[in-house]
User: Fold this.
Amino acid sequence: MADNKLTPVEKLNQDEAAAELARLAAVIAEHDARYHREDAPTISDAEYDALKQRNFAIEARFPDLKRADSPSEKVGAAVSEKFEKIRHRIPMLSLDNAFSDDDVRDFAARVRRFLKLGEDIPLRLTAEPKIDGLSLSLRYEEGALVYAATRGDGTTGENVTANARTISDIPNRLKGNPPAVMEVRGEVYMTKEDFAELNERQAAAGKQTYVNPRNTAAGSLRQLDSSITAGRALKFFAYAWGEVSDMPSDTQMGMVEALQEFGFVTNPLMAVFENVEELLEHYHAIEMERGELAYDIDGVVYKVDDLKLQERLGFVSRSPRWAIAHKFPAEKAMTTLNAIDIQVGRTGAITPVARLEPVTVGGVVVENATLHNAEEIERLGVKIGDTVIVQRAGDVIPQILGFVEEKRPEDATEFAFPATCPCPLETPVVRETNASGEESVVRRCSGEFACPFQRKEHLKHFVSRRAFDIEGLGDKQIEYFFDDESGLEIRTPADIFTLAKRDESALTKLKNRDGYGEVSAQKLFDAIEERRTIPLERLIYALGIRHVGESTARTLARSYGDWGAFEEASLKIAEGDEPAREEMDALEDVGGAVIDAVARYFSEPHNRDMIDKLIGELTVEEAEKPQSDTAFSGKTIVFTGSLERMSRDEAKAMAERLGAKASGSVSKKTDLVVAGPGAGSKLAKAQEFGIEVIDEDEWFRRVEAL
Assistant:
């Protein structure tokens, strides 16, 4: 939960807004990876949507603060390194969301205004259930399946062809007379019945059971061993397309009917309507019967039926103007609040978690729910022993909405928020203040790396993909080694790099322990050894300093150049050196919140001791400083649309190396816009301001001419 979640966007000042955008970028990126790449989300759909909506609102109020890594410019998450990458010929974009009937009416009105359609002219719209599964793109050439790719980040996906061939709903060869090139897109899912049977088999075999059908289907499709996928009873609904050499129809509904003729399963609940009220009636009918469906859905998707109108409408940023997803409201149930426990996160955030009498909500057994903070408990008025109302909408950790007053028992007890951390050190719990002097709603343990709870979470962050990215050392392995008491424990980052040496003298070597063998143990040691040399920006990010995400870590690394310079500046700031603080404050995208976090981090003796031991084990590569003498030096460049020769991240990194600033939004300060196919509002804004616009090929010509 955000530190300033109760501070309205309109009350944020410039520094607070910048810090909040940095936090949101990091948090949303982390949740994107958990949902799209790891198939293991840790927050609810509603909480995720709230994060995205807050990000959009801040960007709308402070457009010049829009970050190069803004979540509003991203789709999905980067692909896993486990799979070969496939670049989509046409990007797989995401949809905007509607949460009420009025949102849908507004959508239809926007479409009419854009197309200049009067109310007397029919606007045909299709409606189809929004399947809760994993998006997949299938490419057919001359009727034969060539490859299957996940959505990935929307531009590049993972090659899962071998696994897709095991799904009976996916034909290896199309029926009838399909186009020479036909990319079919749809959703891989698992039925509720098949999911229940899988869990029964897992439980009978003494293996781990799964949480919900969506994550299980996604994880099953992304197996390295296709025989595992084959045993998971996956299914596929086709509902869209990518590149097509010869369109079989000029309407959305006609195209889906063609997909059915080619041998695909399409959803029987899809229909086309002439007006919005009929559309909404269909939505509410599906909402009423969703519990009886064989599969999970989380809403209904509406699309303009006429494909020529879709082409005229085009796209806005990452979403089409001609489609929207109408999400279902959360599902609810009643149960007993048995206890409230405290959890400590990586940044020391103290989070109360409700322990519930198990209850089934939307087909998932719920035993825990988030309570966020002390203010939330007070606002809800809940006591231990209450009958509470639990809400879930595809959630992993549901929310408590309130309690049933008439069911409150006489012995219900109030929860006292702890003044000290539940760790053995019992370090004080503190509340920070923001730039306006307001206290944060989040309480934090002040122990940093001294606190064992934070230490464990810091270590998980340290080895994460965008930090040290040590293969074979993930969250589960950190838990394993952290709790070890036989000489192979990992309690600090430096312990990771002494593991192999300690293993040589250990009584029971790693290769002889459960879960490891000689080959797997050696692979882990080799993977650790490969990460002894690390780029400066990855090291700074891996330290887990609050408010320092990837983008900020990159800025700090490129500005200071090497570890010695960055450490010296950070220590000076921690000691109150004003010139050092001013120097850091002058950096792009670095504000007061970041500098205060750096000061706190480097003023903590435990952190400094941890860093000293770690640096002694590493070789830290100097950062590549931006060039200052190129034609792009000092320029502000915006990349928009679908880039075909490079990813958006690669484009921004290239611009920054050449001394430019890569911005996510177009303003009068923008010097150059590089526009690819599907460029929408940013291109229009650039043309309005008279900003130079070039395509991707011209960009490369100019870069190669330097």
Observations:
- Residues 1-6 have pLDDT under 50 and may be disordered.
- The chain has five domains: 1-74, 85-327, 470-530, 535-621, 636-704.
